[in-house]
Write a structure and sequence with these properties.
By secondary structure, the chain is of the alpha/beta class. It has a domain at 91-158. Helices cover 38% and strands 24% of the residues. It is built from 7 helices and 10 strands. The protein has helices at residues 57-65, 97-107, 112-125, 141-157, 178-195, 206-212, 238-259, and strands spanning 2-6, 15-24, 31-41, 46-50, 72-77, 83-85, 166-170, 198-203, 215-219, 226-231. The strands form 2 sheets. Strands 6-7-8-4-9-10 form a 6-stranded mixed beta sheet, sandwiched between helices. It has a 4-stranded mixed beta sheet with strand order 1-5-2-3, covered by helices on one side. Helix 2 packs parallel to helix 4, helix 3 crosses helix 4 (141-157) and helix 4 (141-157) packs parallel to helix 5. It is globular. The protein starts with a strand and ends with a helix. It binds adenosine-5'-triphosphate. Residues 24-25, 31, 33, 51, 53-59, 204 line the site of adenosine-5'-triphosphate (ATP). Adenosine-5'-triphosphate is lined by residues 24-25, 31, 33, 51, 53-59, 204.
Length: 260
């Protein structure tokens, strides 16, 4: 069975993957990137997918986003199309920050006055209210990622009534310097709490995963499978440090067993 289906199961699930397999290519050149992935994300939940390079994290996000189809298994979504944010902000260089945020609303047919109001609210939410008329080249890398976050939220939150909002983030801060990354991580947590959107966040950085996620899901490599998952409470509490240490240990084991 192979499908990506909208689900109207009610409010208990933002996205559910059941027995998902993904194979690229055919015959002797076939690569099974994912095998038997089961994952459920609740509405409003923040889940981090953690794994070494090449374990299939981006493939999982692409399948959830509908950018690719699973070779087997099912993906059920409570929204018709989740919003995606990548490592690069990918803003339209000829549009101002505000117009970039408005873009998904324009494509969805939202009227001009309303989309201007919503873009202004979202730029305010990501603390860029004074930068709406700037073009991407006038902004820093961190500011561009904040515009990209506002644009993704415009897209995700525009589907209210369509199901739970879902934001898919593929290593969105990994190209930024450590100070900006740290700042944007706390900004993302603030924005997530303010909007209540479910987030699936891909990273290879254990500390980032533990800091952001309510749940951290560790994937193995070749094929990508769920190895273990952890519920994360407070990173600054003693248990937070222990969880970080434990996840680091498991990740090292997974990488060395793959290398052996
Ligand atoms: N279009 C494709 N064709 C063939 N193989 C692919 C394709 N996309 C991904 N793969 C393979 O699938 C596996 C998983 O790739 P994926 O990009 O999902 O990993 P990742 O965990 O996101 O890696 P990274 O952290 O380096 O971005 C890799 O072995 C990769 O080479």
């Amino acid at each position: 069975m192979t499908a990506t289906l909208p689900t109207h199961r009610g409010t208990d699930t933002a996205v559910r993957l059941t027995g998902v397999r993904k194979t690229f290519g055919q015959g002797t050149r076939a690569v099974t990137a994912l095998d038997g992935i089961d994952l459920r994300v609740a509405p409003g939940e923040f889940v981090c997918l953690l794994g070494a390079s090449g374990c299939g994290k981006t493939t999982v996000l692409n399948l959830i986003a509908g950018l690719d189809q699973p070779s087997a298994g099912t993906i059920e979504l409570s929204t018709s199309r989740p919003a995606v944010m990548f490592q690069e902000a990918a803003l339209m260089p000829w549009l101002t920050a505000a117009r970039n945020v408005e873009l998904p609303l324009r494509l969805a047919g939202v009227k001009k006055a309303e989309r201007e109001t919503r873009a202004a609210e979202l730029l305010d939410l990501v603390r860029l209210s004074g930068a709406g008329d700037k073009r991407p080249h006038e902004l820093s890398g961190g500011m561009r990622q904040r515009v990209a976050l506002a644009r993704a939220l415009a897209s995700a939150l525009n589907r209210e009534g369509d199901g739970a909002a879902l934001l898919l983030m593929d290593e969105p801060f990994s190209a930024l310097d450590a100070i900006t990354r740290d700042f944007l991580q706390s900004e993302l947590l603030r924005v997530w709490q303010a909007t209540g959107t479910a987030v699936v966040f891909v990273t290879h950085d254990v500390r980032e995963a533990v800091r952001l996620g309510q749940r951290v899901v560790l994937l193995s490599s070749k094929p990508g499978r769920v190895v273990q998952e952890w519920a994360v409470a407070d990173l600054d509490a003693p248990e937070g440090a222990l969880v970080t240490e434990e996840i680091n240990g498991r990740l090292r084991e997974v990488i060395s067993s793959h290398a052996a």
